Amino acid sequence: MGTIRLLINNEDLDAEAKGTHVCRDPVTGEITSVAAAARSADAIKAAEAASQAFATWSRTSPATRRGLLNRAADLVEARRDAFAAAMMAETGATKGWSAFNVHLGAEILREAAALTTQVCGQTIPSGRPGCLAMSLRRPVGVVLGIAPWNAPVILGLRAVATPLACGNTVVLKASERCPATHRLIAEVLRDAGMAPGVINVISNHPQDAAEVVNTLIAHRAIRRISFTGSSKVGRLVAQKAAEALKPVVLELGGKSPLLVLDDADLQEAVNATVFGAFLNQGQICMSTERVIVQESVAAAFVERLQARAGALSIGDPRRDDVALGPMAGGDLARHVEDLVRDATSKGAKLIRTANPDGLMVPPMILDGVTAQMAIYWEESFGPVVCVLRAKDDAAAIALANDSAYGLSAAIFSQNISRALSMAENIESGICHINGPTVHDEAQMPFGGMKESGFGRFGGTAGIHEFTELRWVTINTQKIAYPF
Q1: How far apart are CA 348 and CA 369, in angstroms?
Q2: Are 455 and 249 in contact (CB under 8 A)?
Q3: Are 130 and 213 contacting, i.e. CB atoms less than 8 angstroms apart?
């Protein structure tokens, strides 16, 4: 197996220090990829390449940028098998999750292509006679994109597509868990015809992550940082960005609640819970972590949830009949088991559909979770969902908001007015009525509140994040100055 090299200035390069990082298949333990391990010198080289390319790329016509992004979308779809194979090998993703990543990844590129002609300003009435005032949006420069491993095609492309559409150049820092998958993103963009330096991708060893990220944030060419990942790391990124006075878009952790009201279609609510809690082994920022059920329907809901969860298959993600694959690493599996052990020691009832086998962690339901348990507060990022009971609508809203996080939420009720009224009082950037907490579309303003981050990806909201708003005036009359 050849080393996955850095892509800087459209060149395939080894890390300057010749270091590498080995990734292993979560199922077999076999080596899946050996990636070049960048250090500060490589990070600087990538930032400078992007900086040099910015002058030309920022002046490239919207039609040209649109054509290149659409061509890249076609290449993503044409190479779906390569993307899926890399995802499954590096992260343990199932075939279905890998296929959806490719599908939405291509849609993200096409949505970005459509945005190239929507980078708009406006005219603003001026109080000065003969003064034409306007606002203009302009690309910011070099954007640093830091993408995670759990939805590597979706989140890797999201980190680069809109910035490129707006006329910025990009340095993408690949995740240590999936360097091959993120490298494929760079290859489709290069093969689509992006000029040297427009897109650059570097990988690194986990122990060098802080060095590489800090070097990039501090580099004078980097003008925006886009980070998707844990709230813990996001806070560190935000601190470094603040020191450098650079804006950052953060999409962080979640503890997404799904509210089941007493008039809900219980089977639909159960289906949405199973999908939202267990898709990709619960390793999604929007995963349903808490189900808040009104007391009158709680027993019936839990009975149905247990039956549905028990029917899910778990095993090698390369098989077509598997719903859940392995967790992406032993550290993640241990974290889930530690949270479950703490909860059961404090009175929660565990409904486990099967016994865990290494990284194969089966779907779990914790009933009777209280605020004294760590899992009430902490993101599990695994295939476990907590059931909490609420006596009425007000109590359900209070439980939903009793969290440091605020990314996604869902409400199930057959009374839409009631559900919409409740949605207005839930502290989350996203809320779905009669749908799962896990829902993503390329054109939607995606992002959270509180410790789930700030800023929005997707659609025209993304334009605001990756452009500078400038005020420009044209004076058509002579100005009478006071002195």
Answers
A1: 5
A2: yes
A3: no
DSSP letters spanning 399-462: HHHSSSEES--EEE-S-HHHHHHHHTTS--S--EESS-S----TTS-B--EETTEES-BSHHHH
Q: Return the closest-CA partner of residue 258 out of 428, 375, 120.
A: 428
Sheet holding 248-251, edge to edge: 11-13, 6-8, 199-202, 169-173, 142-146, 222-228, 248-251, 453-454
Cα–Cα dist 7/10, whole Å: 6
Residue 2's pLDDT band, with cuts at 50, 70 and 90, is low
Residue 248: beta bridge partners? 225
| Both structure tokens of 306 | 């247990």
Q: What is the pLDDT of residues 222-276, one digit of tens each?
A: 999 999 999 999 999 999 999 999 999 999 999 999 999 999 999 999 999 999 9
- Which residue's entry shows tokens 């427009």? 198
The reply to whether the predicted model has a pTM over 0.90 is yes
Could you give the residue numbers annotated as active site?
251, 285
C-alpha 471/C-alpha 344 separation (Å) is 59
- Structure tokens belonging to residue 323: 């719903």
The partner residues of 22 in beta bridges, in order of sequence, read: 34
Nearest by Cα to 281 from 164, 374, 412, 381 = 381
Contact (Cβ atoms closer than 8 angstroms) between residue 142 and residue 50: yes
> Which residues are paired to 134 by β-bridges?
123, 472
3 state DSSP class of 311: coil
CA dist., res. 9 & res. 19, Å (int): 20
Rounded to whole angstroms, how far apart are CA atoms 157 and 460? 16
Q: How many beta carbons lie within 10 A of that of residue 55, not counting itself?
A: 10
What are 281-331's pLDDT values in tens digits?
Answer: 999 999 999 999 999 999 999 999 999 999 999 999 988 889 999 999 999
**For the purposes of burial, counting CB atoms within 10 Å of the CB of 443, is it exposed (0-12), middle (13-18) or buried (19 or more)?**
middle
